[in-house]
Amino acid sequence: MDLKTLYDAVVNGEIEEVQEGVKAALAEDLPADRILNEALIPAMAEVGRLFEAQEYYVPEMLISPKRCRAAWRS
User: Fold this and answer.
1) C-beta of residue 20 within 8 angstroms of C-beta of residue 10
2) Angle CA 22–26–32, to nearest 5
3) In this predicted model, what pLDDT tens digit does every residue of 22-51 receive, in sequence order?
4) What is the pLDDT of residue 25?
5) d(CA 1, CA 54)
6) Contact of 52 with 20, CB cutoff 8 Å
7) Residues 12, 31: Cα–Cα separation, whole Å
8) What pTM, to 2 d.p., does this model score?
9) Disulfide check for 14: which of 3, 9, 37, 66 has CB 3.0–4.6 Å away?
């Protein structure tokens, strides 16, 4: 899975896709810091931006970190 797809999955709240995406990226020998720095952290920043722009609301804002934690636990 490419990192853009993983980024989009976090932003869109697709928890299962995030988990599968992280597994796939690690299986492709992508370093964990690259996955974090190029996909997960920027996606969470985008969720924050969308919240500030009032396009996302509190539930979406609170779910974003949970998506990322769930991905690392799998």
Assistant:
1) no
2) 85
3) 999 999 999 999 999 999 999 989 988 988
4) 94
5) 30
6) no
7) 23
8) 0.78
9) 9
Q: How far is CA 16 from the centre of its chain?
A: 11
Pull the structure tokens for residue 64: 């974003």
Here the tokens at position 49 are 């931006």
Going by C-alpha positions, the residue among 3, 74, 1, 73 that lies closest to residue 38 is 3
Q: In angstroms, what CA-CA distances link 35 with 6, 46, 54?
A: 9, 16, 27
- Tens of pLDDT, residues 53-65: 888 777 666 666 6
Q: Are 43 and 4 in contact (CB under 8 A)?
A: no
How many CA atoms within 13 Å lie on the side-chain side of 8? Answer: 5
Within 8 A by CB and 6+ apart from 42, the residues are 7
Instruction: Give Cβ neighbours of residue 2 (< 8 Å, ≥ 6 apart).
Output: none
